[in-house]
Amino acid sequence: MINRFSVLFPIFFAAILAFISYWVQVSVENESEKRGNKLSNSPDYFLTNFKTIQTESNGSIHFTEKIAGYGAVREACDFIMKAQGTYDEIVAPYFK
Questions:
Q1: Structural domain tally of the chain?
Q2: Per the count of CB atoms within 10 A, which of 14, 50, 74, 79 is most buried?
């Protein structure tokens, strides 16, 4: 015979998740109403003279040549993909 707890637990768990989801949605809607729905896509902060530092496989430090907002992340991703040997196969379709 199936234990009642094992039958009712998923129902209670789903109900709790539904309540939490509803609470989050109501909280977010209330917060946006307080702001007057003035949402923007502008950044909160600007970083100047920010450089990323990576270590190579031998432990030496690799500095990116570009600064944040001007290709530093792209350069870092290219560096990682080249180190993994996946750069050529991922980038090749874009240069056809």
A1: 2
A2: 79
Which residue in this structure is represented by tokens 């874009």?
Answer: 94
Three-point CA angle 48, 79, 91, nearest 5°? 110
Q: How many CB atoms lie within 10 A of CB 64?
A: 19
For the chain, what is the mean pLDDT? 78
Residue listed under structure tokens 């009712």: 8
DSSP letters along 60-78, please? Answer: -EEE-SSPTTTTHHHHHHH
Residue 1 pLDDT > 60, yes or no?
no
The residue length of the chain stands at 96
CB 27 within 8 A of CB 18: no
**Which residue type sits at 39?**
L
What is the value of pTM for the model shown?
Answer: 0.34
Q: What is the pLDDT of residues 37-67, one digit of tens each?
A: 566 677 777 878 776 666 767 776 666 666 6
The answer to whether position 77 is within a domain reads yes
Residue 61 to residue 54: CA distance in whole angstroms: 6
